[in-house]
Amino acid sequence: MAKKIQTIGILTSGGDAPGMNAAIRAVVRTAIANGKKVKGIKRGFDGLLDEDIVDMYDYSVSDIIQRGGTILYTARSEEFKTKEGQDKGAEICRKHGIDGLVVIGGDGSFRGGQQLARRGINTICVPGTIDLDIDCTDYTIGFDTAVNTAMEAIDKVRDTSTSHERVSIIEVMGRNAGFIALWSGIATGAEDILMAERKYDIDEEQIVEEIIKKRKIGKKHHIVINAEGIGHSYEMAERIEAATGIETRATIIGHIQRGGSPTCTDRVRGSAMGALAAELLTNGETNRVVALTKGEYTHYDIEEALSMEKDIDQFLYEMSKKLSR
Ligand code: ATP
């Protein structure tokens, strides 16, 4: 029979993402509506090991749905990657009466959650990362806000790029994943979109040829979106300027992509995922990852979720090349 959960703990871990607060709010209020107690664990697994744990009530999550970042703070913990750290973490959960746990973060955080699940703490993971790089789900909390922030920043750079008839290399976030690059590149009509997943497809000589050809037919700007995973944007700008003779500037958008008030999508989906996590714990489930697959909220075994693979959407990628003529 499924274990009846009394107290649900909640933590955010890894990189922060807009919409995490909506998820926290949904976990807290759904759990309380279901008759559970809730404890907030500050600063991820690091805070768990430090016993930085507070009681949470309905009003603890008032006025946060519109705020970026995470009210519980986030951190990375090397100690929690060790067996001793994980044993201690499970022990601390038990000491505080936490028999169910919601972990909001990326796949590293899910591995941490899995370790606690193996030690008898019912654990549900919620995908929270701006990078969209969690393979079992089509959506992660924060991606929509981040990609809209990137799009607005690129639009602004494009205005000045056109006025000065420059080439612009614009670096967006995504160390291992090019989703922000692909989406923001399509949304801004970028001429080139470079990302680690399609590294084999990057031909700088061809980019230079295209810039020269398009300048001859009257194009006023040329935008290259470069994912963080490729990087070296300043060096690339120098090389392109030298080869084309056209002024070329690099802009790294950086951390503004992590912050800001979450979009409606991140608030609604963040709420739905948080609420589903609390419902799953109420039903005695453990070791699950909440996901949005083909438009439906669902959940997978953590092991299964971590073994899945997803790639950049090939149709979108091929389309982007044809649209950027
Ligand atoms: P993001 O990719 O958005 O930064 P993430 O959750 O993948 O998020 P990580 O830094 O990989 O970020 O992981 C966050 C924390 O989760 C780590 O600091 C560590 O405490 C814990 N963690 C990561 N990997 C493991 C693991 N294999 N076993 C146990 N705990 C882990």
Note the main attributes of this structure.
325 residues, Rossmann fold, seven-stranded mixed beta sheet, four-stranded parallel beta sheet, elongated, binds adenosine-5'-triphosphate
Could you explain how this protein is built, in words?
The strands form 2 sheets. Strands 3-2-1-4-5-10-11 form a 7-stranded mixed sheet, sandwiched between helices. Strands 7-8-6-9 form a 4-stranded parallel sheet, sandwiched between helices. The chain has 325 residues and is an alpha/beta fold. It is 42% helix and 18% strand. The radius of gyration is 22 Å and the shape is elongated. The chain folds into 2 domains: 7-142 and 262-307, Rossmann fold (3-Layer(aba) Sandwich); 144-259, Phosphofructokinase domain (Rossmann fold, 3-Layer(aba) Sandwich). The longest helix is centred in the middle third of the chain and has 22 residues, at 143-164. Residues 13-15, 45, 76-77, 80-81, 105-109, 111-112, 115, 129 line the site of adenosine-5'-triphosphate.
Outline the biggest β-sheet.
7 strands, mixed
| Continuous helix count | 11
Q: Extract low-pLDDT stretches.
A: none
How many DSSP E strands?
11
User: Helicity range of the residues?
Assistant: 40-55%
Overall average residue pLDDT: 95
Give the CATH architecture of the largest domain. 3-Layer(aba) Sandwich
Secondary-structure blueprint of this entry?
Layout: E1 7-12, H1 20-33, E2 37-41, H2 44-49, E3 53-56, H3 83-95, E4 100-105, H4 107-118, E5 122-127, H5 143-164, E6 167-172, H6 179-187, E7 192-194, H7 204-216, E8 222-227, H8 233-244, E9 248-252, H9 264-282, E10 288-293, E11 296-301, H10 302-307, H11 314-323
Parallel strand pairs: 1-2, 1-4, 4-5, 5-10, 6-8, 6-9, 7-8
Antiparallel strand pairs: 2-3, 10-11
